[in-house]
Amino acid sequence: MREQQLREWAAEQRLESAPVRVELALRRALRARRWRRRMAWAAPVAAAATLVFVFWTVHEPAAGPGELPRVSSPAPTLAVTPHGLPSLAKAMPPSDASEKPAHNGLASARQEGRVPRPLVPCLRGLCATEGKPAPARRARRRPAPQPFVPVGAWQAVEPLERASIVRAVVPRAALVGYGVAIDSGSWTEPAQVELLLGEDRTVRAIRPAAPVQ
Amino acid sequence: MGDQTDEELLPALRRGDEVAFTVLYRRRQGAIFRYVLQMSGCRETAAEVTQEVFLALMRQGGSLDSDRGTVLSWLYAVARRQMSKHAAVARRYESLPEDEMEIAVDPREDLEHADLREQLRARIPALPAVFREVLVLCVVEEMSYAEAARIAEVPEGTIRSRLHRAKAMLAERLAPAVRREL
């Protein structure tokens, strides 16, 4: 009799089940979890984008008197011919006009067909004022800098991702060795020059600094 | 998908398949709910623990190794752990020592509930937890001794002896009512 009662009790117990709300809550949780899993990539991507932006913002140098700011894109393409750097001076014309991009000479030369297609891919970031006009204040302070003269076997260098221009004082006699024209002054006097430095901080080109007004 | 075993549903569960989860839930929720209900005696706790057990399945279902045991035994194991966390359950359903168990049931109640099934229903929750557990697993869920032993994490012989002891205790407690009925 007790076994019979126990079986009846068991059969009665088997009718018990969890409330429907439990199933609904679980299915909701499952959907939320699936959504979170799908969106899991969004947070790292956003974080990476923020980091890149912050890094780019922090490391972009301010435009100083002797160093030009880098630009992001598009980078100018500088033609380097097998005969050296004949177009370098054209590629780096004096940026006296604030509205003109600094390598306007290169662009116009290319349009005219005077500049051959580049053998070396490109020289990125060389022209700092690409795409944005130079500040008027700087244009007033730097009237007419001379074009850069390449130093050493520059045609063998790899494309520049970043370049900077620094000022230095060198003996005037040393400039002659680089082929920089000296118009006046004594040979023994020091001359202020602007050096175009590559990523490896080696001098790629040189030009006499424009007198600061 | 309804005819697939629990273990066959696991890969779909890993992918977050809602249908697979629902099939598995509907198949197993009753057993877990009844187990917790009998062990805790509280319907609300049973619902809560059942939900937590299946949430754990949702989170850890992907790492379940079917070679180490069935999904059902894993669910029971999680339910046991979750129940131990419910301090309130322990307070509410602390088993009485055997000598006090007679007092737990009001003698007047015996008269009111002459029906033996009612008596049984009243006496089972008063059994110690280990005996209730074995009753749920072996009588309600009709598990084999081996399965019950795996879930209760005790040797098979212990399950046998516990079941025997549980039935004996019930018979003992029901004896006055049976006598009255006769």
Tell me about this structure.
- The complex is a heterodimer of chains A (213) and B (182).
- The model of chain A is unreliable at 63-106 and 117-131 (pLDDT under 50).
- In chain A, a hairpin with a 5-residue loop joins β3 and β4 (203-208).
- Chain A contains 7 helices and 4 strands, in the order ααααααββαββ.
- With 213 residues, chain A is of the alpha+beta class.
- In chain A, 26% of the residues are buried.
- Chain B is mostly helical and 182 residues long.
- In chain B, 74% of the residues lie in helices and 0% in strands.
- Chain B contains 11 helices and no strands.
- The longest helix of chain B has 26 residues, at 156-181.
- In chain B, 36% of the residues are buried.
- Mean pLDDT of chain B is 80; it is low at 98-103.
- Chain A binds chain B through residues 1-2, 5-10, 12-14, 16-19, 21-23, 25-27, 29-31, 33-34, 37, and chain B through 16, 18, 21-22, 25-26, 29-30, 32-34, 37-38, 46-47, 50-51, 54-55, 58-59, 116-117, 120-121, 124, 136, 139-140, 142, 167, 170-171, 174, 178.
Structure described in brief:
The complex is a heterodimer of chains A (about 210) and B (about 180). Chain A has about 210 residues and is α+β, with helices and mostly antiparallel strands.
